[in-house]
Amino acid sequence: MEKLLIQNARILDPSCQPPLDFVGDILTEGDRIIKVGANLAGTALAKGATVIKAQGLCAAPGFIDIHVHLRDPGFTHKEDIFTGCQAAAAGGVTGVCCMPNTKPVVDSEEVLSYILDQSKQASARVYPIASITKGMKGEQLNDIAMLHSCGAVAVSDDGRPVENGGMMLKALKAAYAAGVPVISHCEDLTIIDGGIINEGKISKLLGVKGMDRASEDSITAREIVLAESSGTAIHIAHVSTKGSVQLIREAKERGVKVTCETAPHYMIMTDELLMQKNANFRMNPPLREQEDCEAIVAGVLDGTIDAIVTDHAPHAENEKADFLTAPNGIVGLETSFATTCTVLFHQCGMKLLDIVKLMSTTPANLMRLPGGTLREGSVADIVLFDPDMQWTVDANKLHSKSKNTPFDGLELTGRVVRTILGGKTVFEL
Question: N or C: which end of the chain has fewer CB within 10 A?
Fold first, then answer.
């Protein structure tokens, strides 16, 4: 089996006790890590290994993005499993959890089998998420245990909420009994009522209908109450408001089994960017206000927010052409680490080890996935990155089939240099 020796990297692994942060080597054989240590080059174990000189780079377990839309099946003009995973690899992401709002919806063994078969030759591991309700219509609960046995790692109706609280409570109980995570898209559609951007000063200036933050906060509160009263667990998707951060913080302090995620754009961008009337700044939840950005960053720093995701949501150029009628969503797999590194490491002083935990180890643990670790014997999914490399995002150079990024032209600090999947390089800068 082929051996690979990553030499003289700064090794970051928050999964170990104590966490690893030292300059050393990683030796892989086949698809496994067989040794982590110092000065491995001269050892018998490393004989015949291909050497990657990684001086000045950090080596960490490959990032795992637990909230991605691959658009396959049904919307492959936007993205497909192959191109989506190419984008993932370019962002140091070795595992993606793909949401079920495809066509057909991921609510059957057949669709799960299709996704798993298509992903066998992809540049990242693909973990499908099945829908909570049949067809994501909110009317009939799926057989969650059966879907889990067929390969679904979690359930969610992401893209829309489970509107009926009673249905959501049944889902929480069934999923908890089956050991399956439930991810909630927290949005009250009766409050949204056709809004397209955050409701506030900017929506008024533009004269467009806004999305009241009460929509997100009210369903976040509902999910917390349902999980707390039933003794089950809930994961809140794409947190964007200061209110939701505080609700989750207080619930965690009470011992509620609630976890959550946010995306890099909610840490760095506000709705003022929408004054450009560029639909690439439209997503759901929408960009909020400066106080929300600050609350999101504070929530990450104090541990209220557990994971960084992208909510990677590709749309074709013609679909994003009209600001008022464009669908919500942006691509983000290739800019996620760089944005997170820019904000949390360079601006806020967060340790790189803690960023790896947010983007790799904790996501793996939340969804009960392999990866998120450099332990000997574990799968050889590794990212090499330079935390100090400055670069400017060019939408035309993204690997995603769609280019609808709000980061185009933005200078970021921190870049993925190489991504290794199962002991083989799948991306190199």
Answer: N
